[in-house]
Amino acid sequence: MHPIFDTDHVYRSYFKMAFPVVLGLVVTLVYNLADTFFIALTNDTDLIAGVSLCAPVFTALMAFGNIYGQGGSSLISRLLGQHDLSSVKRISSFCFYIALATGLVLAITMSTFYRPILTLLGADAATFPHGYYIVLVICAPIIVLSFIHSSLVRCEGLSKESMTDTVLGAVINIILDPICISVVGFGA
């Protein structure tokens, strides 16, 4: 097994691993700006407000995914350094299944208490009808899972691959945004 992190050239290794992560985050920022731009083109202030109200919900789902993704990747990195591949497989599986279970519990909780949650976030009669919240509820397990995979892939030294997946998802989203929002009329 060759080492993932070249200890002879620490700075080079660090930037080789860190640059794709930073680039992936920048692309995610651009994709969020593109989402906002295409939703704003609808000139529907209630739609824009409805989507904005759901940002904390998405952030909460992301946080749960990061708990398992970053915690698991830290442990997996140490286990890879110890060449303990059987434990790496166990931890990776645990992160997957606990993230999936957490996403399901969150989806059930969010669907059960959708009115109080949205009211707490500031929704009113005008913003309730916009269905972005229901998409987050339905996709909660997938959203939580998506954040563990990017972390687990990076901890194995595959930061370029993680960045490539992030960029690919963002580009597809940016292409589909105007089509789905304006042309097809799906809204947010």
Write the topology of this structure.
Layout: H1 10-40, H2 45-53, H3 55-81, H4 85-112, H5 114-121, H6 132-155, H7 159-183
Record keyword descriptors for this entry:
188 residues, mainly alpha, 7 helices
Describe the structure.
The protein has 188 residues and is mostly helical. The protein has helices at residues 10-40, 45-53, 55-81, 85-112, 114-121, 132-155, 159-183. Helix 1 (10-40) packs parallel to helix 7 and helix 3 packs parallel to helix 6. The N and C termini lie far apart (47 Å).
How is the biggest beta sheet arranged? none
What is the residue-averaged pLDDT?
Answer: 82
Q: Please tell me how large the radius of gyration is.
A: 19 Å
Count of helices?
7
Order of helices and strands: HHHHHHH
Unreliable stretches:
none
Shape by Cα distribution: globular
Q: Which range best describes the helical content: under 10%, 10-25%, 25-40%, 40-55%, 55-70% or over 70%? A: over 70%
Assign the structural class, choosing from mainly alpha, mainly beta, alpha/beta, alpha+beta, or little secondary structure: mainly alpha
Task: Give the total of beta strands.
Answer: 0
Ends: how far apart?
47 Å
Q: What is the strand content? A: under 5%
